[in-house]
Structure formats: structure tokens, C-alpha cells
Fold these 4 entries.
Entry 1:
Amino acid sequence: MKFSLGPSLFFWPKNQVEEFYQQAKHSDADIIYLGETVCSKRRELKAKDWLALAKSLASETNKQIVISTMTLLESPAELQVMKRLCENGELLVEANDLSAVQMMAEQKLPFVVGPAINCYNLATLKVLLKQGMMRWVMPVELSGDWLKQLLIEAEQDNIRDKFEVEVFSWGYMPLAYSARCFTARSENRPKDDCQYCCINYPQGRRMNSREGERVFVLNGIQTMSGYQYNLINEIPAMQQMGVDIARISPDSEQALQKITAFRAQLEQAKNYPLDGQEECNGYWHKIAGMSVV
């Protein structure tokens, strides 16, 4: 079983991003994803900067480096940026939108299907395999039982060995995307004059219910879970059912330490008590996503 560092979903200053990936280079991650997946207005690093950073990491480490595309595309300019990433010529691409899938299929190149693409059944997996999918990241809201059944069906259909399975295992879950920027709205700014205010919230902006319960984290146009998803106790079961990769989603340098702890689970299978005020694992257990088992 391998462990990946997912693309950073938050807006950080360029020097912080570069420093983070220099540390990630020496982490226990087997795979490193990087690139802007949330908002094209986040231009601390442009497409050429992300590609240069990714190629630099690829040349300096034996880890697999993957460039991730945007999830919600709203303009021809964003399509052009995605086209540039898909045609980089060296790096594996994580497609987070079906237009990226089409671009990779036209080039007859393998790609990763990101968690934002709605793939819930065997029929959809088979379509994506024909397009060139070599790895599938399960949508975050699906359960362990659902995944287990789907992998059994894939085995019965003799396609299980044709793709890797990756599961989002730690971090704030990306739940939804909107053309409206919630972070800008929270500061009474129009989206077209947001002044890039989400850079002031390096772990997103927390949103509580009227009862004071943390419900969501607002991250620009992205709505995330209010609690951090944590499947560290499920690692042995995930390995047994055939999950190939567990993804750690970075919100800070703490994510690099989490990769080490998750990897240790393969040997020690320690039972970690989860903090119900900060963490959740409900989706995996087919209950309310905010809940903890």
C-alpha cells in the first residue's frame, strides 16, 4: 500500500508553497500531487510555475509527481491552462474535470481520475478505463462497504488489475464547488474584486451553524467539511480490501507528519481515539459524514 500527498486545496503565498514541497520531497509520501485545483484567480503560482516546480521535484526524488487540473472551469482561458497542463509531455496528470479526461484520451495518455469526477459504479469505471484511466480516486462521500462491493464487481469483470484505487483518507473533504466565491462574500466583496482575500485564510474560513456547531470550511468557491476526515484506523481494512493508495490532503506541514503515522499503521495497526470536535469518519461507515465511529 502506498501513501500520497494530495494537491494543496488552500491558497498559500508562493514562498510557502515552495518551502512546503521542499519538505514534502523528504517525506514518507510515495506520490506527490500539486497544482491549483480550486480557483484560477489564485496566481501566486501560474501554470508554468506549477509545471517547473513539479518537474524539479521529479528530477530530485524517486517519488511519483502528478500535476492536478482545475475542478470547475468557467472560461476559455481556464481551458487553455488545463490544456497546457495536460500536454506537459512528462508528468502524469490528475483530471478533475471530464474535459481534462477528454484531452488526455485524445493524446492516448494515462491519467488519474480525481475525486471530483462523479464515478460511482462499474459501468462508469469501464468507460473511464477505455479513455485511459490508470488510477481512480474514490469520491469522498462514498463508504467502505460500497468500495468493497465495487472492487468485487471489478474483480468479477476481470478489470480490477487495470487500475489503481486511491482513497481520500485525511484532511478537510472537498464537498462542493460553486461559481460564487464564499470567502469573498464573507468579507462583503464581489467575486470580481475579491482582492484574493482567501490567502488570509490558509486553512479556509470556518462556518458554524446557528447552534455553534462547525459545519463547513469555506475555501473560495469550494465548500469543505467542517471536521477533518480521518481514516487512520481503517488502513488495515483498506489494505485488505485492495486499496492501493491512501491520500493525505495537506492543510499545513502537519500533513507530512500524518503520512508517517498512516504508514506506521501497516505494521502496528494502532487504534487512535478520534476527536469528535475536530475529526470525522462518518461517510466511510455509511452514517452522517460529520459523525465519528
Entry 2:
Amino acid sequence: MLENAWQQVTATSWIEWLGSLAGIIGVYFSIKEKIAAWALFLVCYAVYIYLSYQAELYAAVAMNAFFIVISIYGWLNWSTALTTGIASINISKATKNELIVALSFIFFSTIGIGGALHIFTSAYMPYLDACALCSSFTAQWMLSRKYVENWFFWILADLIYLGLWLAQGYLVSAILFTIFISLATRGWLEWRRKIEVYS
């Protein structure tokens, strides 16, 4: 078993390594509120458009394409202080209404997108793929606004993607999402402490 895992790791393409490393460093930088995180996210998402298409995870293809747009928005939003002198965005909590909207979006969009993928494509586990997509959309939007709850939605999405990539035989990507879960947990703890400082 270990020998088989090692063979999978050594057979991993350079592009999967590139996407994985860019993603890990990008998440770490986002925890530390470094603007450079967004440039690394652009690299990671571009790579995962290609990998997701290969794995027939079509919702993930769409997600990563959309994330490129959100990353540009996040980059501009976080860098406002550098270009205009306006105070940078502080970490805060989403409102109750925003959380209700987010959860409703995830639930109904998962049903709609998952159903469409099931009927019209050969997508692998379409409802799980769709749920991870919708949770990731929510998390990425919240990250761009510096809402602390973004880390909960990342953990949900990352748990699903961990299972999907592992089931498809992408060991390095599965390891990547395991690391993402750990980093998201750390992000939640660090950002929660920062909110207490701001209060």
C-alpha cells in the first residue's frame, strides 16, 4: 500500500505540484492577510481548471474559472489601502442574514447544479461536486470581505474535495486538501483572535 502511494506521488505531474504548492502558500498568506495570496490563488485556480476537467469534475472546472474573477476582486479589495490610503478591511463576522442567505444558496444551488450535472454530463458524484462548488463560492466571497466564517465553509468544501480527489486517484491533490483543512482550522483560530483584538 505504501509502495503504491509512493508511486502515485512520484508519478504526479509537475502541474499538479505547481497548483498544490501555490494553493498551500496562498492559503497561508491569506491567514496572514498578505495581498500576495491572491496572485498565488490565480495560479492555483488556473491549474485546477485543467485538472478538474481531466477528472470530470465539471462543477469544479466552473468554480475555479469563477474563482479567478473573485480573486481579482479580492486582490483589488484588499489592496485598497495601498492605492487610496483608506484603512484596510478589518476581519469581522458575517451578519445573521448573510449567513442565512449563504446557507440557502448552498442548499438550493447544490440541488440545481447537482441535478443538471447528473442529467446532462458524465460528472463524477455530481451532487457532492456541486455542494463543494457552492460552499467554495461562499467561502471565497467571504474571504474577499474578510468574514471569519469563510474558514467554516472552506473546511466543508475541502472535506468534500478530499474525498473526491482521493476516490479519483489524485493522491497529491488529496494531500493538498488535507493540508487545506488544517490551514482553514488555523485561519479560523487566528482570525477569531484578531476579531477579539479589534473589539
Entry 3:
Amino acid sequence: MDSDKKRGGGENPGPERPTLKTIAFMTGLGVTTVSRALKDAPDIGAETKERVRMVARQLGYQPNRAGVRLRTGKTNVIALVLSIDEEIMGFTSQMVFGISEVLNGTPYHLVVTPHSHNRDPMVPVRYILDTGSADGVIISRIEPDDARVRLMHERNMPFATHGRSDMGIVHPYHDFDNEAFAYQAVRHLVERGRRRIALLQPPSRLSFYTHTRIGFQTGLHDFGAEEVPLRVTIDTALNEIRDAVETLMRSPNPPDGIVSSAGSGAIAINAGIEAAGKRLGVDIDMVSKQSSAILNWIRPEIITIDEDVRLAGKELAKAVIARIEGRPPEELQSLSGPEWPQS
């Protein structure tokens, strides 16, 4: 019989994962000293801490999460439950970048739990709560009466939301001012002589639908324009948005302006305009939100309004960490405005 098999190993298991003992051996320090240095203990000198950290970085040392959890009851994990449907325009990646910037240098690690908006949004949140797999949670696509918010509040899970709820529960959030976006979008279109304006809006179940509609309707009233109904939303399949816009543009009284609440939807809108034989910037103008500069590359004629999703990620990460540390939720709420192009 092969001697390797007699010893119980048929394959090379590869290098062992570095441990506190590995760092102790490399630095000539005790395991306890190494552990305390990595925890930034006040009784360990700055020079010793830097030497331990340098060796830990060189070795690629990572704390054993199971051991950390046994000792402290914490996972050092922040869970981001995020819809993957908008990744075509970089929404997801920008959110992750922003959160990661804040978590860098903290004990916390980011675990992304992707889901589709047409699935039950409670499933990933229940899993995190039932398994205790995170110390804090960030969620998006908030509803006015959001069951996820209620459940995490009841279970005392620190969390922050990308969007506001309206259910009498005070909780941390960061939100984009969609009311201001829609209002100013109408103003920009009217300034270009447009009076018949359509809106590609969020689905009615989401909180930012209400904010968007208020801003849009107030803008129509204040600037003397009228709405041309568009019977699709930003959650509608892109090919269906394109077809709906083409039909609308071929109708006897088509819109001469359109507002898009999502960058991906703007791509489909542009395709529908072209399919109807119309020209963007000539027959119709469009204002759209975007989380990256892709629209400007595709169609410079689109008036683009930046939603800083990276900033949102930073604010949400700060809020959930502060909530873990016990800060009151009413101090952890923020709102960012639309960034309009320089004239």
C-alpha cells in the first residue's frame, strides 16, 4: 500500500493557514502578546503592535471567525442584502465599494447576500437572523410598511436601510432625495420647451415611488406641464419598456419629454424612441438618474443626474456600525440630494 495513503493523506493539503502561533514564532513574542497587539490593547507598545501587524499582513493572517464568535459572541460580519437586478448600471458594485471603504481598517467584513426583487425579500433576512450569521444588516428597496424592518427591529438586530420607511419605527437609513430629483427633472425639461412629460417610475410598493410621484406632480403643477402616462415601471423587463415607449412615441399625442428613475430604464427608453423613428434631443428630451457615467457615453443627449451610490454605501456602513456600538437610531439618518450637471 502507498505510504502516503497509510498516513491518511493521498493529496498535498497545501500550506497551513497562518495562526497566532505562526505570528508569535516569526516575531519572537508570546501568543498572548500577539493576540493583544492585534486587538490594539493599550498596554502593548506602538512599536510592538506595528511589528505584529506587519508580520500578520505579510502572512495573510485572518482571525478564525468561529473562534472569535465563541469568545465574543460576535461574527464581525456586516451582511448586505442587495438586489442584483440593477448591476447593469453599476449600482451594486458602487454600493459595495462604498461600504468596503468604511469597513477597511475595522474588525468587520462584508458579506453580500444577493437576491432578485421578484423573490420573497424576507428569506435572506430570516436566514441571517435565524443563523446569527451577522452583527448588522444593510437592506435596500424599502417599502413604506416593510416587514424586514419590523422583524429586525423586533429581534434587536442592528440594521440600516437604503431608503425610508413610514411605519412608526425609528431606524437608521440613508436615502436619495427622489422628490427633489423628479421636481428638478420636470423643471429642466420645461426649460427646454417640453410640456408633455412621461415618467418611468418605481413600482408603487416601494417608498421612493411616493417621493418620486410627489416631486413629479408638484413640478408639473409649478412649471405648467402635463403628464403623459407610461404604463411600465423601472422593474419591468427592459424589452417591455422599449416596446411601451415605442408604442407611446407612435401615438397621436406622444410626450416631448420623459423622466427615468433608473439608468437601465433610460437605455430601454432610448431604444424605444429610436424604434419609433424619433430623435432624442430633437423630438424628445430625457432626464435620467444614473449611478455611473455609462449613459453619458451611450447618449450624450440624455440629461443625467448622478445618484452617489458609493456615498450611500459609506453612510449605511457608518450607520450600522454606530448602531452596533449603541448609538440611538435617530442620530443615524441621512439624505443626499441629486447632483445636477454644471451649466
Entry 4:
Amino acid sequence: MEPNIPILYEDAQVLCCVKPAGILSQAAPGGEATLLTYLEAQTGSPVYPVHRLDRQTGGVMVFAKTKEAAASLSAQAADRTLEKRYCALVHGKVEPAEGELEDWLFKDARTNKVFVVRRERKGVRKAKLHYTVEDFDGFVSRVGVLLDTGRTHQIRVQFASRRHPVVGDRRYGAKDDSDRLCLWSRSVAFCHPVTGERMQFEEKEPF
């Protein structure tokens, strides 16, 4: 049975929805059904990807419904006017309570795992984010994150490299018994491709 994808907004140009955790956001080898295919079946119209989320990460995403809108939103993603905010639960007390993380990241294509490295070289890309600690319960910090760049596994790797792995993220060192990855796309903001209106859509994290 196909999942019913919650749609936050839809018009002739754009579609904003809430991606369930556990679903691929875009096509991958193997022919598995993706969020794209579910949305196209649900809306009866073509849908074009603009950004992606890891399979285990849920939350707000924006898609284009025309090639022209896709070009506009992709350009906004490239110049960082398409703003993506996340929430994560991470192990330990993150200090200072707000700041930025900047690293060089290398992705091992063979293992699909990302590593922080010390210097720029072939295959290495800069990653930057801003964070604010919203709560600390003595064991776990709730952090709000604004991405400056959108690298594979970026939030997971940057916090894990500082001994603050995301709760449930055993790939990057978490040793808890959580049955879910506690990383969520909380909001997406962008300028409408046709009207230019600044739009923002939000969905609170379920953890």
C-alpha cells in the first residue's frame, strides 16, 4: 500500500510536503519506489526534485512542478536563498550554546560514508552550518540547525566528529537503542518561482 504523503502547499509551480522517514527522496539503483513516485501518483502531475533528504530523515521538502520552477528553485538552493532548517537530538552537551561548524568533508562512494578531513584535496568539499542549542536534558541536546551548505550526511558527520552523534545514528557512532534517526527537516523557505513571494513551510519534529 502506497503511503499518503502530507502536502503542506501545492500550486501549479511548487509543492511542499512532509517526507516520512524511511523513504528515499530521489531515485537510486534498484528501482525502489521513492517520494517522487509517490507524489506523482498522488497528485497526478510531474514532480521535479530540488534538494534531497537522507532516507532516515523526515520532514519538510519542496519540489517543483515545472522545469522552469525547478531551475528557479535549484538556483536558489545554489545561492543559499532556499533556506533549510533542521532539528536534531544529539548525544552530550553541545558547547557553546550557539555557533557555527565548518569542516572539509570527504565522501567514500564505496561505503556511502562521509568523513571530516583536515585539508582540501580531490573529492573534498567544504561544509558549514549554524546551530543553536534549544534544550539539554542532562544527556541529550536538542539543536536547531541552519545549513549553509547541503552536503551528504552533513549534520550527522559534523556533530559526530565532535563526539555528539545524532541519536539513533549508529552509522556515525551513536550507541543508544533509539529505533529512529532523530534528525528532522523543520522548515524550508524560498521565493516563489513566478510571483517572487517569500514563502516558508514548517512541520514540528515528532521527537
